[in-house]
Amino acid sequence: MMRHDMVYFLAAFLSSCILTVFSLRKSGRKLATVFAVLALLFSGWIVYEWGGHMLSVMSEFDGRRMYMGISKEGLPYAAGLKDDQTPTFWAFGRTILGLTDGSFSSYQRILSILNYGGLVVIAICVAAVSLYARKEGSISSLSVISLVGVYVAGLLPAFRNIEVGNTNIMVAALASIFVASVHLSRSNVGDVLGGIALGAAFMIKPYLLIVLVFVLFSSLTKKRLGHLAGLIIAGSLGFLTSLMARDIGLDTYIYFLTVARKLIYYHWSSHPLNLSLLRQAPVHMLGMASAVAILFFSIFAVLDSRKPGSTVLYWFFPALLPFPILWDAHLFGVFPAFLFFLSGKGESEQVIVWAVAVTLIYCSCVVTIPLMVNILLLGMWLWGIAGTRSYSFTRYTSGEGRGELLRLLGV
């Protein structure tokens, strides 16, 4: 990144932080609006300049490695390929590629259509949920700017996925359909379709495991069995139909769960751009550390799913934390949660979500501070946990609210 780009991004980051302070003061509305416009302009310029560079380069490093696994004969896994892709992804890729001339350009064209289509789906889902959340109240200019600001910040990890040819945009789109069904669906059919979408997202990227745990228990507790039925349908059909694809069988699944998973952990765990805190663990303990982290969040998910006011939304934030591999491209798989989370908040809280989103992108795409990335994701999760009983920002930062929050967390 050029030096002046760093300055622009830093200006956007600082403007959003200053905006947060003024937005919390009733007397600071004019200044809040000024800094909101500044933050949006600086963020927009970075996306235009740096994001445009990504799209012009189109290295497609991941895309080429995935194509090699899709197009090769026999087991799709091999050293140097995308060992972290699921057998269902390979089956889908081989089926789709079989309908074309089999060239990389054909795969590239399909991937581009799915990625840009995914961005449109996310925008539609977020807009629908936002309008529903605000249908009985007015939408302030600061709320609109905050929503656009989060959109703009999220374009950088989106363009990173397009640049390298990854599939996290598709995961985000499918997850957005599920979240939209949670907010908008009033029928079993809508719930089933949402569950199918989440199940498909999980089969592409299993890092949504924590989200899946919450949904499984929440569906039973809240009697929204349509989501559970959708997950079962997606899982069953995905598994059975994948076995019909070329050279995909039970041995492929066994290889993925045993050998392939270890290959990706050992190969990339020490990479300097890896944002995961688990990379600090010794290589031979990565599996154990990951299992402990998954167990920790799963226990919390089960307990939280039993609360009347709980929602799946904030469980997307810690979804990446239990895994020892985390890239900035992966962040887009959970980034739409910021947009949905913002729609249900007050004006001051919306600005805070925006500032957190900008900070997350800054610390993952620009200066790469793994500790800050993980703290921000964990902080958003805790904010969601604290809001299970409809806590407002001002309430749970008050003396009485802090006591209730501590009791809620069992401290």
Automatic annotation (TrEMBL):
<feature type="transmembrane region" description="Helical">
    <location>
        <begin position="6"/>
        <end position="24"/>
    </location>
</feature>
<dbReference type="Pfam" id="PF09594">
    <property type="entry name" value="GT87"/>
</dbReference>
<comment type="similarity">
    <text>Belongs to the glycosyltransferase 87 family.</text>
</comment>
<feature type="transmembrane region" description="Helical">
    <location>
        <begin position="196"/>
        <end position="219"/>
    </location>
</feature>
<feature type="transmembrane region" description="Helical">
    <location>
        <begin position="31"/>
        <end position="48"/>
    </location>
</feature>
<keyword id="KW-0808">Transferase</keyword>
<feature type="transmembrane region" description="Helical">
    <location>
        <begin position="315"/>
        <end position="339"/>
    </location>
</feature>
<dbReference type="GO" id="GO:0005886">
    <property type="term" value="C:plasma membrane"/>
</dbReference>
<feature type="transmembrane region" description="Helical">
    <location>
        <begin position="351"/>
        <end position="383"/>
    </location>
</feature>
<keyword id="KW-0812">Transmembrane</keyword>
<dbReference type="InterPro" id="IPR018584">
    <property type="entry name" value="GT87"/>
</dbReference>
<feature type="transmembrane region" description="Helical">
    <location>
        <begin position="139"/>
        <end position="159"/>
    </location>
</feature>
<keyword id="KW-1003">Cell membrane</keyword>
<protein>
    <submittedName>
        <fullName>DUF2029 domain-containing protein</fullName>
    </submittedName>
</protein>
<keyword id="KW-1133">Transmembrane helix</keyword>
<feature type="transmembrane region" description="Helical">
    <location>
        <begin position="225"/>
        <end position="245"/>
    </location>
</feature>
<dbReference type="GO" id="GO:0016758">
    <property type="term" value="F:hexosyltransferase activity"/>
</dbReference>
<feature type="transmembrane region" description="Helical">
    <location>
        <begin position="113"/>
        <end position="132"/>
    </location>
</feature>
<keyword id="KW-0472">Membrane</keyword>
<feature type="transmembrane region" description="Helical">
    <location>
        <begin position="281"/>
        <end position="303"/>
    </location>
</feature>
<feature type="transmembrane region" description="Helical">
    <location>
        <begin position="165"/>
        <end position="184"/>
    </location>
</feature>
